[in-house]
Amino acid sequence: MALAWQVSCAQDMPVGADPNSRSAYDNKLYRVEVKGRPQSDVDLRRNAVVAKQIVGREEIDRFGDSNVNEVVRRLPGVDIQNGQPRLRGMGSGYTQILINGEPAPSGFLLEQINPAQVERIEIQKAATADQSTQAVAGSINIVLKTVAKKRQASVKLGVAYSTGRPTANVSALYSERAGDLSYSLPVSAYEYDSSAEMKVSRYVAGSLGTVGTAQQLAQQPMWGHSINASPQLNWRIDDDQSINLQAFLQRSDWHSKVQFTDIAASNPLLFEDSSNNEGRFENHRLTGQWSVRFSGERKLDLKLMMGQALNEFVNQSYRANLPYRHSVGEGRDRTLTQSGKYGQLLGDAHRLSAGWEFEFRRRDDERNVTVLGLQQLPGMDTLPLHAKIDRQAYYLQDEWELSDQWLLYGGLRHETIATRSDTFDGAVSNRSQVMSPLLHVNFKPDPKGCDVIRGSLTRSYKAPDLYSLVPRPTLNSIYPLPTQQNDQVAADRAGNPGLRPELATGLDLAYEMYFTGGGLFSVGLFHRRVEDLIRYVTTLENVSWATVPRWVSRPQNISSANSSGIELEFKGPASQLLPGLVDAKTRLDLRGTLNLYRSKVDAVPMPNSRLDGQQPWSATLGFDYKAQHVPLTVGANLSYTPGYDTQQTLSQALKQTRSRALDLYALWNWNQQVSLRFGATNAAPQWTGRITSTDDGSSVQVQRKTRPNYTVAIDIKL
Length: 718
Fold this sequence. Notes:
- The chain contains seven helices and 36 strands.
- The protein is mainly β.
- The protein has a single domain, classed as TonB-dependent receptor, beta-barrel domain (Maltoporin, Chain A, Beta Barrel).
- The chain starts with a helix and ends with a strand.
């Protein structure tokens, strides 16, 4: 058995091969001949040049999720906060979200994509030169379905229920090839209807001259729908040239309400507003790529991407059941990216690549807010503001196969980032340069085996998002009048045009052990040293938009920080993972993770001075069981994060409560063409929340409890 596994490993593509490139399967480039079975997700992971997790169609479909965010939150080392995924417990800004290798637009959420459109999900823990190094914690790459080699047609119909009424979702795929021309049309649409309970507690310790308390209960219904399409056209001009066009079209409409049902407050100013909220998000993206090969050992890829994202919202708040505050706004992001990559084989061991990227992004921001029918900030709210980022990047990388056991990857990437943002006093410009040396080493203890030891030394960064550069203030809804003085825990928000990128030096070590039949065990260690850390800081200011001093929260480069962690992962047949305890005939697969994290912010020399949102530890455990005599598979996944405290600044702290998620599924395969799936996400809901407190004793606690979601779906391959 062991010998057979070694032979299959030897026949796979060499470590470091790019599974998306035609050259990865070409014996001219790697001097090997690839035979046997297709590459599995585990094979692709083992052969990656850096530590990477590959999630294929089987895992994506497992629980019958209606959006990609639900899939991602179960993946090793990933947790969700404020709707955004985070790697290694580091904030969402440290985790780069990619769509087909390109940065996702501002305002994009993974919950806006139907899993049926996704070919695979790649989680990469360290940066490489040929992708943007805006990945301090790592990258999550959503690879959309590509043109198939033969005709495909399928449809998936589903019904979900959480609260109120059942909701429907549908996805369809048609792919065809005619000679040298092939095309694919994945389309999906879904709707949702859910609800959450809320508890809000406020305590203001005399910052306004009096001590005030408020206790409120609320219901928060949420509903909406989304439609997505990612058509693709591929033209194989000849044996050495091809042109690929792919569009990504998306529209999401969302609605939510917050209705406070029970209020007890010592001061009416401490009330939260009941509100109606709605909006839409649109994303249009077109990517064209031309690939040409020269003499079998050289390749050139040229790519052009044009995109536009639109985010609109309308908010109406109420006090004493009467209209109070009305806010409408629109943000429009436009992107143009041109890139190129040239690769050449040098001798038998070196694969040299060089490339460039030019990116131009612009954000136009408009907003208007009225309170009791009067404009909140005359001359300020209706003024359109703009921000833009121009980015230039050049890189060089070399993949060097030293021997059957050693692979060395060296890369150098230089990026120039120029930002320009409007302010009410004129425009502010910034220019930063980031030099990113990158080194990855892979070692196979047994040249005929599958185990891999990896080491990486990288330089990465986090650029300010365009929204945080726009200085337009957002007045806190509890104190919406510029004649009112607010408190620390109800601060206004404003951007900072002078933000600089955060720079991070990273070290990663990992050992990956692969078992017969696709099982694996891995242990990874990482360390990040972050310079120019950005954090929101709340201060009392004399501001131009108010007649009294206001507490304002602004992003600032405040300090340096360290973050370290250990990540354990296992998955595979239970008989392999627990030999002697589980019979080899038992069709039971297990999976689990345990992650330990520590961080320290230099400017906050106090206990719990950690990075925002980085939990001390987290764990997941799941199983899949295939019945012996019927085509039934059942499974579950449990994740847990403990409660923890974060000292954000010298005067402000955050306490996060524990969180737990239990998901269940059952799959019945009628035949090779038809399957029926049942799922339950958040099957054991609990209250989760956060408490923000300040050094004067003031605090705000917000707790939420969402309802379970049940799904039934039928998948038909035509």
